[in-house]
Amino acid sequence: MLDALKFFLFVILLLVTIMLNQHVTSKRSAEIDLELLWQIQDTKGVYIVPNQTVPSGVYTALEQSMVIGSLLEEYNDVNTSWVGETDWIYRTNLSCLREEYDYVVLTFHGVDTFASVYLGETHLGTTENMFVRYRYDVKDLCDGDTRELRLQFRSSVVEARERAKDRALPVVPMCPPDLYHGQCHVNLIRKMQASFAWDWGLAAPSMGIWKPVRLEYYSSALIRDLTVAIAETVVGTDQRWMVDVGVYLETGLSSVPLNGLLTFKIIGVPLADEADQTLPVTDRTDANGELLVKHRLTVRKDAVERWWPNGFGKQALYSLYVRWEDVAVNGVKLPNPDTKISEKVIRIGFRTVELVQDPATDGLTFYFRVNDVPIFAKGSNWIPSSVLPERSYDANYVKFLLYAARDAHMNMLRVWGGGFYESDHFYRLADELGLLIWHDLMFACSMYPTDADFLRTVQDEVAQNVRRIQHHPSIAVWATNNENEVALRQNWYKTESNFSAYAAQYVELYVDTVQPTVLANDPWRTVLLSSPSNGDHRTEDGYIANNPQDPHYGDVHYYNYFLDGWNAAQYRGGRFVSEYGFQSFPAFTSWPEARSYGQSELSQLINHRQHSPLGNEPILAMIRYNLPLPTDPSNGDYWPELIYLSQLSQAMIVKTETEVYRAHRIEHGTMGALYWQLNDVWIAPSWSSIEYGGTFKLLHVWLRTIFAPEHLIAFINERRQLEVVAVRDTLAPAEELWEVEMRIHRYGSFRPVDRHFVTVPVPANSVKLVPRWDVYGRLAQLGLHPADHLLLLTAYRNTSTQQPPDARQPVAENFVLLDKLKNIRPDQRVKPAVVIDVVSAVCNSQNNLTTVSLKVSVSVPALFVYLQLTPENSTLKQCQFSHNGFLQFQAVRTVTLTCVNPGCRNTIQARDITVRTVNDLLVR
């Protein structure tokens, strides 16, 4: 049976190969994807992998053919390092016909990274930048004969090593820390910087054709990119939108005259002036065959709806259609007029986004104003969805991650500068979900060279990618790099002795090259020189501030690893906190090795994947501050308990820090909180809230509350006073009346020992301090000890004297720990009996989604109830609990579990769910 199946697949592949290699006979302008069937092999012919389609990468191909094991399991990041140090060849057969076309262009949209390109015996050129599109004129080679299309890849590891030789000024850091198990000199090449290893990721120096390859046929001009700049204006008595469109035309790879007509339409939207619908063009392309044509459209305000960030309104999107038609189409009778026509459609949104940096009493403001509404930016930092670039094209996984961000009430993601410019799919989804994008250019945590060839390819990279991405309404701001200014000023890489030389290179790269290239292609948006930076604030220090982390200006990155992160008094923040966070371990059941490794073996693997130079000590230190810490690594429950406590600690730290920043909106002008980081690239200790593969850590479950548009924030401030702040990100009504109930509970009792009520008016899109309650003074009056109690808070909207609070639906809930959990005294350390019952379970066969309703019953209050599926349910994917790590101060609560259940084969029962609580550890 298996042999028959293999033969059937072989026949199918053969037919596909024949079909894809047919002569192109279309008489229209066309872009033909050369998915083909490629063969990949090393230059010595030891490893040969046939029948590969693109996008592709060497690691992926070798895994699929079982030459190597999964890069993401066990120690394969080290065991497969030879792959990245080997040269490889991609080859396929290509047959094409030029017929009457004026241009036949072979276009590689992404080659990773160094390759010589051949068609037959003709050397077409070389590639050196994975972020750049490469085009080759192959018209003379499209004669119907079959030729081999071949890319000979050189190892990026070896190339980087060669480029490091004989440099008068070293480009630092030269290598990552040893515990990264990484490769050196990645900053000398234009490749995903994290691919040589990072503090959260493995070394995977990929090679391959990571984006589509296309043959482009046309006879006049091709519309490559469309850019837009949209602004509000008034014409007479009409309020209008101005849409400035940039049309980037291409005519092969050389300069030729162009004479034709551009037609513009916004589908379903009438233009204010119908004469704007067409634009005659008589011009000449430049030496590269490129021409920018600018045109302005106007639209009445009442003809469209605005685009809003998530939580503030709809994400209205409109299709902008542009058509190029050569004058010859109507001037003479042509046998194939469509070859002189090109069309392109993009989606645009009508909105304004300003980064406001106005004078304040103690510096400059720094916040985003969208459609004239100040926005508190809530969100995270995005790293590539896969360490292997070709796998970033997994559209379903990218969708899952972005929906998870949207559902956690995020309105902004920062695309971090050590990854890559994301797929079109990523930005389209961000538009649809209302996720504003803070976009770094792809430079991170390094000094960089500034020789002429490096600056030339950087200019191409920035121009091409800004043009491709720019039209998306989700793009809010550009930053030329991640942390390079602060690294230089704070001497991260021992640059102090040559500071002036490194500073000159910094200015040459970012101030003189990257920033003006961005602005030339997108004058619509602000370009920050770095993140963090002081934004518009300039001093005698020029472009490298004495303190790029000044909380009175721009954005800051804040990490605290040894002060008690559960203590709100540690945090002040700044105008905008674009990075902060804390590590935790992935769930025990997420480690494939957990079922086969012993405790010591698993410890070794986890330590191997812990790339933070501080190791696990910060995680352990935070647990020691607040919780009982497991101490016996030989105990079978050691890692399950430690993982649980690490995730609880991470969630508490990020919760506390985020809520302080949201509360400081008025006092300190803080208007942004983007924690580090949303996602992961493998199962390893990291700062992520979502594990690689899609499992939510406790933090991500909590974020639905932490980032809720209506929230009640409470913490103990630096004066040891209870601070309660009502938060509304909503725009209507202008003011709401909330009644806030505060209940003091003993840890061992469902019944509160005291209650306090206060009513507060809460304005729209703002925060309001709730009148103070001296909770510690109240405990003293009652003769109660803080260590035995916590505070539960609930806010109710539109209070009514006739309706008891318990009968109303809460607007927001929160809790405050009045002392460290490890200090709970013995008489309040109670162990609950926790019972899980499956109330209902339904699987939708169309989307393979199982939804299970669970009843969680406890005999006494349970602290931070942690629910996990057992390892036996490993075929279930992306399982998420609606609530997890929760305080249960009621006897019964309902929790929903959803999982991707392929074929609806698995039935989830109560015995499939394990439960842990802090109580279990306290009573040990």
Automatic annotation (TrEMBL):
To which protein family does this belong?
Belongs to the glycosyl hydrolase 2 family.
Localization of this protein: Lysosome
What is the protein name stated in its UniProt record? beta-mannosidase
A Gene Ontology molecular function term for this protein is: beta-mannosidase activity
Q: Which GO terms describe its cellular component?
A: lysosome
* Reaction catalysed by this enzyme: Hydrolysis of terminal, non-reducing beta-D-mannose residues in beta-D-mannosides
Any one GO biological process: glycoprotein catabolic process
InterPro entries, per database record: Beta-gal/glucu_dom_sf, Beta-mannosidase-like_N2, Beta-mannosidase_GH2, Galactose-bd-like_sf, GH, Ig-like_fold
Beta-mannosidase-like galactose-binding domain mapped to chain residues: 38-211
Q: Which UniProt keywords apply?
A: Glycoprotein, Glycosidase, Hydrolase, Lysosome, Signal
Organism this protein belongs to:
Anopheles stephensi
Gene3D superfamilies the record matches: Galactose-binding domain-like, Glycosidases, Immunoglobulins
Q: What is its main location?
A: other
Q: What is its EC number?
A: 3.2.1.25
